[in-house]
């Protein structure tokens, strides 16, 4: 879960881009088109809004959704090297549209190759769970063919790319590649379950208004193998990953200061996604919800009344001064489920001053507990926003 989150950084990016547009007038021809989302409602010079079930259709909706202000493709996972080391990873590519649909009508002709509607930004990190180390990187670029963008070919393969980072999604597989100065990974993934459409057929409410929502789906169990480079050491790794794709226009409501998001993979081949929308008065917004995914891939929608999350421990960042939860107890009463989640490394903080300029915590967690009379274990990822300051962000 990631108009205004990129506002300060995008102003800087736009200033650079305007210089490039003036100095480097190259022609540009777009060669990709995407099906409109039927849940969109828009007027001239306004962004599209998500107001009802999203009618998602694949592979088309793995691609980009122009007209919505914010979109992201997100992967996390827990991996083990053949030599025994354990790692967590995350990689997200964001798209931020900088002007409403129809703004292209006012562009000069021919338009510069540097002129576009979108900024692409990326965050990636590796947590060395064995060495208790966490390193991250960030990228950004204006949309430009071959540098940053999204494409789909006739067979439906989707490619999302940003400099030397890329995501490839086809009918059966995902491939995630990141190359950074201190780490890299090339991970091939195969989904063991169909896409999960959260909320009402992908329509995920985040507030009282119909348009306080996003289109949101996940692949909750991706069998993963590949290579990971960490500080010049190359490892052959395998494990499981999680993928989210979400797009929206609506900002968070004013009384929401941040969110806690959990993606959990259990030892009995089930998964759980829940998010808590935190309010200024330290309560949780009623739109907080989740999805429980059964072993056969079917989903049960959870409202905020169906689960309870209690913070058991916290960690204070020496870099930002923010205090984050680091251990939780999560229960779902009608499943007789009670689990404890604990961060595998306390410091998995992301400080993204070179891209989105947001400070948040994103990290690997371990799971232990029970579901009914059976013990249950597992692993997952948790994202915590708004602990450094109010997270003025999209859904």
Strand content: over 45%
Low-pLDDT windows of residues: 3-44
Approximate shape: globular
Helix content: under 10%
Number of helices: 1
Secondary structure: number of strands? 25
Q: What order do the helices and strands follow?
A: HEEEEEEEEEEEEEEEEEEEEEEEEE
**Largest sheet data:** 13 strands, antiparallel
Describe the structure.
By secondary structure, the protein is mainly beta. The protein is 4% helix and 51% strand. The strands form 3 sheets. Strands 3, 4, 5, 6, 7, 8, 9, 10, 11, 12, 13, 14 and 15 form a 13-stranded antiparallel sheet that branches. Strands 16, 17, 18, 19, 20, 21, 22, 23, 24 and 25 form a 10-stranded antiparallel sheet that branches. It has a two-stranded antiparallel ribbon with strand order 1-2. The longest helix is centred in the first third of the chain and has 17 residues.
Provide a brief overview of the structure.
With 395 residues, this protein is mainly β. It has one helix at 7-23, and strands spanning 40-41, 49-50, 70-81, 86-97, 118-128, 133-142, 148-152, 158-162, 165-169, 173-179, 183-191, 196-197, 203-205, 213-230, 233-248, 256-266, 271-279, 289-293, 299-303, 308-316, 323-332, 337-343, 349-351, 359-371, 374-384.
